[in-house]
Specification:
Distance between the termini: 51 Å
Order of helices and strands: HHEEEE
Number of strands: 4
Strand content: 5-15%
Largest sheet: 2 strands, antiparallel
Length: 83
């Protein structure tokens, strides 16, 4: 007697768990980086790198408000394409 068991839902659940674990590990890495680094440019770069990784984006651009000039300008250290 041969019995077939559909494991599709189990495989989907395992994939979802792996993805969630990866996202949580990435967010943990981010929080450690922010907690241990005092350099604003490195923190912003790390945040944009990880946001790019988590979102699956190919390009990233962070805009910031220049209070002296009253306009929005690119944060040059956060430009780039995902590795």
């Amino acid at each position: 007697m041969v019995q077939h068991v559909d494991v599709t839902s189990r495989k989907h659940a395992e994939d979802a768990l792996r993805n969630q674990t990866r996202r949580l590990e990435t967010l943990n890495r981010l929080s450690k980086s922010i907690a241990t680094d005092l350099d604003l440019e490195r923190i912003v770069q790390t945040v944009t790198d990880i946001a790019t990784e988590l979102s699956g984006a190919v390009w990233r651009l962070l805009l910031q408000r220049d209070r002296r000039q009253g306009r929005t300008v690119p944060a040059l250290y956060a430009l780039g394409c995902a590795a």
